[in-house]
Design goal:
Number of helices of chain A: 10
Strand content of chain B: 25-35%
Largest sheet of chain B: 6 strands, mixed
Radius of gyration of chain B: 23 Å
Number of strands of chain B: 14
Order of helices and strands of chain A: HHHHHHHHHH
Number of helices of chain B: 11
Distance between the termini of chain A: 32 Å
Oligomer: heterodimer
Strand order of the largest sheet of chain B: 6-7-8-3-9-10
Strand content of chain A: under 5%
Largest interface: A-B, 26 and 33 residues
Number of strands of chain A: 0
Number of domains of chain A: 1
Distance between the termini of chain B: 41 Å
């Protein structure tokens, strides 16, 4: 645990002080501001047409649920794509990873430290942006027009707990694959799963309006997290220093 | 004397290739142990086994009695690998503090200052490592290896790519570490001169096998027992030189001018060599016993195992 924390703190500091982080924060900030401004405007216009609350409610809940799912997903994918591949490939090539592994640190503590350093800032930024978007939709459009505040408990659990758990498992899978194979493989797996997930959520929300606001959806997210977590746990049993060293540059020297 | 490193019958395959074949040797406390071998001989793989980075297929590796996989063993080792493993975006101090924390040091400030002093980098302590020269990086990597005050230092080609004055500095630092800090040093190197100057014990590895192992002075004495220089009145003819080279048991080394060097194999007598030369028309002026350099020992061992 101590080793994980040491790696986490160092990597987190590197990420936070990198140009990539500033760039991602700037882009995320710009997109969030746009979302915070545009989403309430669109809702306001729609609610101004006089649509009855009973008819509008499932649509709005679905819309909020979509925002609460997409925002953390997108931010975590951007973070994983940025820090789980190229920097790890450089660490392998420059030998910093091999030097780390030659210390008393275990392969698993290096893996977890790196995973947490990518996941936690993404989670925090994702949560803040999600909250901002939900608040702006409610306070900027829904509450003034209907007197309601739309963000149901299942949506809260899904957005801030279950979906992040799934994403944590996905990031840890991506980092593990980057450590023991070519980092591009780790990146590809994460992006592939991400794209499929975004597609599935988008398609399902269009067909079953009530789903994203339901406990069913929250439980699907939890089950997905548990399943992916179990797969990652199973794969992690074979994670060792030799695999990481041999997947790095100069393995046959 | 206590054994610090003990490797017993270490074998390792990487893919289909057998990279180490029953590698065995030991180093004792206070040794500066030179580990020599051509590229691809298995030096780096041996070091990786020693540091617990690769698991041997068979055999046993221990550091001060602890299996190399154990935490206790790794805490006793400081290392400098082929790549220095330093973070360019961190300062020298930050690099050392990071490793100090990994080794569980709670207040490493004094120790970090001390090792930076030892490698004479205290003035550049707050500079980013990305701005350092190759020699400075290697010195810092040595400091990092020393941060947690280990008993053993494993150094893989510490002077590779460093300019001559930097090499001298590094050599002095290594000697300081060995003598003043009383560390045991395992030095893998291509630089025979460096090994000859600072090591007291060596092993030569080739094609994954230890070909020669022991105390350097004793090996030199043993090898010199047979080494001989024969002076002829004139330089020998190229066909005769070729013939001497083809007779590998003679251990013909070189024959510039009228000075012929031989490192005959066991069972080959010097009078037989002299008779052969006389039979081929050479006039002998003198026959002298010769002190063998590490370079000669190395080339004799490595050439002997080259495929024909």
């Amino acid at each position: 645990m101590k080793g994980t924390l040491v790696v986490f703190r160092s990597d987190l500091s590197d990420i936070v002080h990198s140009r990539g982080f500033i760039l991602i924060c700037a882009i995320t900030g710009a997109v969030s501001i746009a979302a915070v401004v545009v989403a309430p405007m669109a809702l306001r216009d729609w609610l101004a047409t006089g649509v009855p609350w009973e008819e509008a409610r499932p649509m709005i809940e679905n819309f909020v649920g979509l925002a609460a799912s997409y925002v953390p997903l997108l931010i975590i994918f951007v973070f994983t794509a940025t820090w789980a591949t190229d920097p790890l490939a450089k660490e392998k090539a420059r030998g910093t990873l091999e030097s780390l592994l030659a210390t008393p640190l275990t392969a698993k503590s290096v893996w977890m430290g790196k995973t947490l350093s990518i996941f936690l800032p993404a989670y925090i930024i994702g949560a803040v942006v999600t909250l901002a978007v939900i608040l702006s939709m409610n306070l900027g459009a829904i509450t003034p027009a209907t007197g309601q505040f739309v963000f149901l408990p299942p949506q809260g659990f899904t957005s801030f707990v279950f979906l992040p758990l799934f994403l944590f498992a996905l990031v840890s899978l991506g980092v593990m694959l980057s450590l023991i194979t070519n980092p591009v493989i780790g990146q590809t797996v994460v992006i592939l799963v991400g794209v499929i997930l975004l597609q599935v959520i988008g398609q399902v929300s269009a067909r079953v309006l009530w789903l994203l606001a339901s406990w069913d959806y929250a439980l699907y997210a939890l089950a997905g997290a548990a399943l992916l977590g179990a797969i990652v746990f199973y794969l992690s049993r074979s994670l060792n220093k030799e695999k990481i060293v041999l997947s790095s540059k100069g393995k046959w020297a | 004397m206590k054994d610090v490193i003990t490797l017993e019958g270490i074998s390792k395959h990487l893919g289909q290739r057998e990279v180490l074949r029953g590698v065995s040797f030991a180093t004792q406390q206070g040794d500066i142990f030179g580990f020599l071998g051509p590229n691809g001989a298995g030096k780096t793989t041996t070091i990786r086994v020693l540091l617990g980075l690769l698991r041997p297929d068979s055999g046993k590796a221990t550091i001060m009695g602890e299996h190399v996989d154990r935490d206790e063993a790794r805490r006793k080792v400081g290392f400098l690998l082929e790549s220095d493993g330093l973070y360019d975006n961190k300062t020298a101090e930050e690099n050392l503090w990071y490793y100090a924390r990994i080794y569980g040091m709670t207040d490493p400030a004094q120790r970090v200052d001390r090792v930076l002093n030892l490698v004479e980098l205290q003035d550049r302590a707050t500079d980013k490592v990305g701005t350092y020269s190759r020699g400075m990086r290697q010195r810092l990597a040595l400091a990092r290896a020393m941060t947690h005050n280990p008993e053993l230092l494993v150094l893989d080609e510490p002077t590779a790519g460093v300019d001559p004055s930097g090499q001298i500095d590094l050599r002095d630092i290594i000697l300081n570490m060995a003598h003043k800090e009383r560390k045991t040093i395992f030095l893998s190197s291509h630089n025979l001169d460096e090994v000859q100057r600072i090591c007291n014990r060596i092993a030569i590895i080739d094609r994954g096998e230890i070909k020669l192992y022991g105390e350097l002075e004793q090996l030199r004495r043993e090898m010199s027992r047979n080494a001989v220089e024969i002076e002829t009145t004139e330089a020998i003819s190229p066909p005769l030189a070729d013939e001497l080279k083809s007779l590998s048991h003679l251990g013909f080394q070189d024959g510039e001018g009228g000075h012929l060097s031989f490192l005959p194999r066991k069972g080959t007598r010097v009078p037989d060599i002299v008779r052969l030369l006389v039979d081929r028309g050479a006039e002998i002026e003198g026959v002298y016993a010769k002190q063998t350099s590490l370079e000669k020992i190395y080339s004799a061992i490595v050439k002997e195992t080259e495929p024909s």
